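Aggregate trends can hide what the representation actually does to any particular protein. This step matters because it turns folding into a mapping between discrete strings. For completeness, the protein is quoted in full, as a sequence line and a line of structure tokens:
=====
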Amino acid sequence: MNTDHLLRCIRTLEASVERYHQAVPDSIDHEIFRNAIVKGYELAQETSHKLLRKALIAFSYGARKLDETPAKNVLRLAATHGLMTLEGVERWFTYQTNRNFTAHDYGEGFAKETVALLPAFIADSRKLEATLREKLGHDQT
């Protein structure tokens, strides 16, 4: 399982957060990095869920069935197979709920809520990437 794309998403998100905090509030740079955070957050979550679905195939789940499985159930299955902890799954539920609002609200209020979640999200994303890499190997496909 190749986790390089997820790792790149995490690093890009970290850089966006750093630049967001460095930008002058209410400047165009501030807004650009706020938007970059939102998109980076969305991409990291989508990539994580795709990798989890791919990982669960290794535990004899069918790809078609997994494609139809709601994201929260995929997270629960990941915990069942030791890819995440139950506490981690609960945090991912929070991230997913927050992410569902990204399509509707790119304003400052949303950004503040999302930025507050990011340290834990980044740590959990890094942990997931390492777990997938360690348990399921790393290939170049």
Summary: Residues 28-57 form the longest helix (30 residues). Residues 4-136 form a domain with the Four Helix Bundle (Hemerythrin (Met), subunit A) fold (CATH 1.20.120.330).
